[in-house]
Amino acid sequence: MDTRNRTAPLVDSSACLCRVNRSSAAAAARRLPASKACVQPSLRASIHPLKPKASPRPGDRSRGGQCPLLPGLPDDLAIACLIRVPRADHWKLRLVCRRWCRLLAGNYFYGLRRRLGLAEQWVYAVRRDGKDGHVSWDVLDPCRGAWRALPPLPQEYAGADGFGCAVLGGCHLYLLGGADPRRGGAMRRVVFYSARSNRWHRAPDMLRRRQCFGTCVIGNRLYVAGGESGGGGGLRSAEVFDPAKNRWSFVAEMAAAMVPFLSAVHGGRWYVKGLGAQQEVLSQAYSPETDSWSVVLDGRVTGWRSPSACLGGRIYAADCKDGCRLRTYDDAADAWTTCVDSKQHRGSSQAAEAAAIVVLHGRLCVVRNDMSVSAVDVAAGAGNLQGWETLAGKAHAKSFVTGLLSNLAGRGRAKNHILHCQVLEA
């Protein structure tokens, strides 16, 4: 992501800063059948109108009194053109003029892209360097098939450990809690990155200090539970963050204190699996409707031991270390069954280990520690090898035998360890 984009203004998730006049917005809605009006009840022409040095000719101004977005075109047609520019080039649009920058800084522009099906999904990976332990993050544009390093994370998370990560609203990436690398102990701090403004923002701190805890999103609300406070003991408390109210509140406590290492949302319930106070394996489920926790002992959690994701109402998990074979949970049989197999396994080295599974444009994407990404269309069927596609990484060129020899020679250790992987849309 180019550093020239640092002048983009902050984004208020509850306000529209598109600075488009009312007549232009109405005309855009008429020319684009699938679009809707701006969510704001009142839409002013501009809070800070531009002051050109020389007064333009009367024909060069739009009906709202401002210079047109594109000379010679009404603003509604100009917006219809700009929303079709690829996301990778949006930073260039912001450099054209102040009015373009204001348009791209508001929710109207990206909300219109989303309603018309033009929004693009990118994969973001937060990883730790295997040599110095430094935490950084990268982004993958599936259309270009290559990872790009992003500017440094906020200072408090450049060396943190045990922090949580979640996405709200489809475009806000939250980092929360974790062990403070400077002062020691757990943190309450919460920050989030907006894919629309390309900037980091502060959010209200959590109510309790936590590290190594579980996170999930249900109904656009962020839940955290369990973990450690830094004093050596486990936590039973759980909290929820409501972005509409911009505040945290406690929910029901867990049935037992635990440090989760697996977490997934399925069927409207949050399932967590982790270690208890005596290092025993525990599994619990939280129901937001009843605000209660319950111990789970069914086949869903007993056979669950790898990264997972939900798609189409079903939960999928890696059935091998490299994630080239996936399985799904069958509610009727109360058991996990293999659903897709690429038949092209990459070995059992740490570098080829599947670190996360995410959903990207209706497909499951397996992200490995060597930054290779494989996507599969589970709807294509178990025996359809054409459903697999390599989106990024050079690991697909390495055969199983080559990977095995590298592992025996000691070169199979991962140079990077992916901590979190999420998908943001803009």
From TrEMBL:
<dbReference type="InterPro" id="IPR006652">
    <property type="entry name" value="Kelch_1"/>
</dbReference>
<protein>
    <recommendedName>
        <fullName>F-box domain-containing protein</fullName>
    </recommendedName>
</protein>
<dbReference type="InterPro" id="IPR001810">
    <property type="entry name" value="F-box_dom"/>
</dbReference>
<dbReference type="InterPro" id="IPR015915">
    <property type="entry name" value="Kelch-typ_b-propeller"/>
</dbReference>
<keyword id="KW-0677">Repeat</keyword>
<dbReference type="InterPro" id="IPR036047">
    <property type="entry name" value="F-box-like_dom_sf"/>
</dbReference>
<keyword id="KW-0880">Kelch repeat</keyword>
<feature type="domain" description="F-box">
    <location>
        <begin position="71"/>
        <end position="109"/>
    </location>
</feature>
<dbReference type="Pfam" id="PF01344">
    <property type="entry name" value="Kelch_1"/>
</dbReference>
<dbReference type="Pfam" id="PF00646">
    <property type="entry name" value="F-box"/>
</dbReference>
